Task: inverse folding
């Protein structure tokens, strides 16, 4: 029962993502890129030229279909449960949100460099941030965090990045950006807290 209370932010984030998805599913088609764009997805022209900076955050709560949502929520539940118990609610929420924003900025910069404008959405940048933070926490604690050990986390990261690079329609820049942000944020917060 005590662990359930300690993972309240993880549960709240999962609930928020699912509620947003259900609302959007009622309003339209979540697999429709234009529909998701209208509701806050990342898109460089809207973000930069249109000054719609809120998209750095809103896009983290939007998903292209049920499979996209479920993949991210399963990972959020598994990783978030362990990290939130280890770091506490405030630090966990900071890692999640800042990693998601960092992943989106990384995606934006990579796409800008490539000269393309891509519509992107999903919690995966933030989820990869949790992976990065867990690896950092495992290093800080000499081996493991909760039920997760450093070797297993690194294997999960490599596998997730590989699947992202071999699959279509995946924003790998957001994944890598989120991963790096999560690691660095945990390193900084771990030193300060």
Result:
């Amino acid at each position: 029962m005590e662990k359930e209370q300690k993972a309240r932010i993880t549960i709240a984030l999962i609930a928020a993502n699912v509620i947003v998805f259900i609302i959007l599913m009622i309003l339209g088609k979540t697999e429709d890129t234009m529909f998701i764009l209208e509701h806050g997805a990342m898109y460089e022209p809207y973000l930069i030229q249109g000054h719609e900076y809120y998209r750095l955050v809103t896009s983290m709560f939007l998903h292209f279909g049920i499979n996209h949502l479920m993949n991210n929520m399963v990972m959020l539940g598994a990783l978030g449960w362990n990290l939130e118990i280890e770091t506490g609610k405030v630090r966990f929420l900071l890692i999640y949100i800042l990693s998601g924003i960092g992943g989106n900025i990384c995606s934006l910069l990579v796409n800008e460099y490539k000269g393309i404008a891509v519509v992107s959405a999903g919690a995966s940048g933030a989820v990869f941030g949790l992976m990065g933070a867990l690896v950092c926490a495992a290093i800080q604690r000499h081996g493991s965090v909760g039920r997760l050990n450093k070797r297993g986390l690194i294997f999960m990261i490599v596998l997730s990045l590989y699947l992202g690079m071999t699959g279509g329609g995946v924003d790998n820049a957001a994944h890598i950006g989120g991963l790096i942000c999560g690691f660095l944020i945990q390193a900084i917060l771990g030193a300060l807290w």
